[in-house]
């Protein structure tokens, strides 16, 4: 139990309230002189039928000073609590230095399995900048849950089935170029896909032809399947090159097609439960009781749809992995779809429906138009990542021309800059695409944090081995205490990010740590301090580097040891 938890527990006992309620209202004052923690009693007035000032006064008398609490001050309706700084600093730094890059990890997830579905691009289409949201958010959530002790399963639910493949097959038979497919597969597939939609405007019969081809695909027509498999293979090769660049791996690439032969069982289950209804020759499940539109299971022509495949996937994953959570990292516009799928599972009697969680996110859009594959208005993700590395290398050549392994550093810095851009604000916010914004290396950015880490490692390199028996009572500057308080919060930050499925919380926190370290570095000399102070500050520098590296790793961003 950390010091914050001790204080919350003490207040909970005195007020006879649950731990969570007190944790929700406990604040960190904006200024050090106002204490380390503050309990505003205004929200308690109605509960206790007393004024906030009286509640604060009575509670303040019950919180006794001890080795944890140095003093308590009552200011109006606030109970301001000051920690025993020496104990707080000692315990925090000892924990971080001892744990190293495992600081903040937990076994809270021991014995639990979390399935994370993320990235999931459509095959035969460009892997564009819009796919980066699901890819980096999902990757971070998976890393975070694994760090907290869960067994994780990373699933790339490829969009490799559906009527769009009937369109693509039709387009390839009309206008496809075999040589171009070999040399520039995604470019060629995008070209004919765009052409299909252009031609279909004046020739609607093409849409009927596309539906026929998809029906053939579902019926396993050999020639149609062979063509589909070719599209899937060349697409996966392209995708994996991008995943390698990002350092992302998956345990499964089971896409929508994997579940096509498992849908009949799902239909049989729903039919047996009396849930299926006929609607214009299609089969649906009514969701009137949830004020939702009916969930389409089988279309009028007998073809499957997203919902039927997602239902089959959910059932398969539960049987295969026995998950405690199944997290779907898919854009917010799909919220209705997942409400329908999860509620169908509910009325079908699957109690684990509540363990299925949709983690939505905003979209990537241009300032003056919408990104659309049909019209070819996309920016390839690989182009963005390559451009970021080129820009990073140019910057490194300017500031550190003698740096070794510049290409490797440029890769970490450039890719880190892009990932950071996607994770620097709440996931439900839209990202307006801007080359300048994506590749910004100044201010609130990954390069700023990476440079801070490299600065800390430089200090540690000059100091030599980590000193033993450092006297942490030598750490008396306000900048030191502010930094240590931030480092102490790391465990709580990770738990908060996991509970909210929000990597942005980690991004914001690590940036704050970097900012606090740079202030410490400016006002509290490390190597030029007296011997005992130097030892303590070296430990503080080591602790900061541990937290920055771990935090960025959980975001999927690497940190160079030198810059």
Can you describe what's shown?
There is one protein chain. The protein is α/β, with parallel strands linked by helices and 563 residues long. It has three domains: 3-83, Arginyl tRNA synthetase N-terminal domain (Gyrase A, domain 2); 113-271 and 305-365, Rossmann fold, CATH 3.40.50; 381-555, Orthogonal Bundle (Isoleucyl-tRNA Synthetase, Domain 1), CATH 1.10.730. It contains 22 helices and twelve strands. The chain has helices at residues 3-15, 19-25, 45-48, 52-62, 85-99, 132-147, 163-175, 178-183, 185-202, 205-218, 222-246, 263-272, 306-321, 335-347, 381-399, 406-423, 435-438, 446-463, 478-488, 490-500, 504-523, 531-555, and strands spanning 37-40, 69-75, 78-83, 113-117, 151-155, 276-279, 282-285, 295-298, 325-329, 356-359, 364-365, 431-432. The strands form four sheets. A four-stranded parallel beta sheet has the order 5-4-9-10, sandwiched between helices. A three-stranded antiparallel beta sheet has the order 1-3-2. Strand 9, helix 14 (335-347) and strand 10 (356-359) form a beta-alpha-beta unit. Helix 20 packs antiparallel against helix 21 (504-523) and helix 21 (504-523) packs antiparallel against helix 22 (531-555). The two termini are 38 Å apart. The model has no long low-confidence stretch (mean pLDDT 92).
């Amino acid at each position: 139990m950390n010091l914050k938890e001790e204080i919350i527990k003490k207040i909970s006992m005195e007020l006879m309230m649950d731990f969570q309620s007190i944790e929700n209202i406990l604040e960190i004052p904006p200024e050090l002189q106002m204490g380390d923690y503050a309990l505003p009693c205004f929200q308690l007035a109605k509960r206790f039928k007393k004024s906030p000032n009286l509640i604060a006064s009575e509670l303040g008398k019950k919180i006794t000073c001890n080795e944890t609490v140095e003093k308590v001050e009552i200011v109006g309706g606030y109970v301001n609590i000051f920690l025993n700084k020496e104990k707080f600093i000692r315990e925090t730094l000892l924990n971080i230095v001892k744990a190293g890059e495992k600081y903040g990890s937990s076994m809270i997830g021991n014995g639990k399995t979390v399935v994370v579905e993320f990235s999931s691009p459509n095959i035969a289409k460009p892997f564009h900048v819009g796919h980066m949201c699901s890819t980096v958010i999902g990757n971070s959530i998976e890393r975070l849950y694994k760090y907290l002790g869960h067994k994780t399963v990373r699933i790339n639910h490829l969009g490799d089935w559906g009527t769009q493949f009937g369109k693509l097959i039709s387009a390839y038979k009309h206008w496809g170029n075999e040589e171009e497919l070999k040399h520039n597969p995604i470019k060629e597939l995008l070209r004919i896909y765009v052409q299909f939609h252009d031609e279909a405007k004046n020739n609607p019969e093409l849409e009927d032809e596309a539906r026929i081809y998809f029906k053939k695909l579902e019926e396993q027509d050999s020639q149609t399947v062979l063509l589909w498999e070719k599209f899937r293979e060349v697409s996966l090769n392209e995708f994996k090159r991008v995943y390698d660049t990002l350092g992302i791996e998956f345990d499964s690439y089971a896409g929508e097609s994997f579940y096509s032969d498992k849908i009949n069982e799902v239909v049989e289950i729903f039919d047996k439960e009396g849930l299926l209804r006929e609607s214009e020759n299609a089969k649906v499940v009514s969701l009137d009781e949830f004020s939702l539109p009916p969930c389409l299971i089988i279309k009028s022509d007998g073809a499957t749809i997203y919902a039927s495949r997602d239902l089959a996937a959910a059932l398969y994953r539960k049987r295969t992995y026995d998950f405690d959570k199944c997290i779907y990292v898919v854009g917010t516009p799909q919220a209705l779809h997942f409400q329908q799928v999860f509620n169908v599972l509910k009325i079908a009697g699957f109690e684990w429906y509540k363990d299925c969680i949709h983690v939505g996110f905003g979209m990537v859009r241009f300032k003056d138009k919408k990104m659309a594959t049909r019209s070819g208005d996309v920016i390839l993700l690989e182009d963005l990542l390559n451009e970021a590395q080129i820009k990073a290398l140019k910057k490194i050549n300017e500031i550190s021309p003698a740096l070794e392994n510049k290409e490797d550093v440029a890769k970490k810095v450039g890719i880190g800059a892009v990932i950071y851009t996607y994770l620097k604000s709440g996931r439900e916010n839209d990202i307006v695409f801007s080359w300048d914004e994506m590749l910004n290396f100044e201010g609130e950015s990954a390069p700023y944090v990476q440079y801070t880490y490299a600065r800390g490692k430089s200090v540690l390199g000059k100091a030599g081995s980590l000193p033993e028996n450092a006297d942490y009572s030598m750490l008396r500057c306000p900048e030191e205490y502010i930094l240590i308080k931030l480092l102490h919060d790391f465990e709580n930050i990770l738990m908060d990010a996991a509970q909210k499925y929000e990597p942005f919380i980690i991004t914001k926190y690590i940036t704050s740590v970097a900012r606090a370290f740079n202030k410490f570095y400016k006002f509290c000399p490390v190597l030029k301090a007296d011997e005992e102070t130097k030892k303590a500050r070296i430990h503080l520098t080591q602790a900061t580097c541990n937290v920055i590296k771990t935090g960025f790793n959980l975001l999927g961003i690497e940190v160079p040891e030198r810059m």
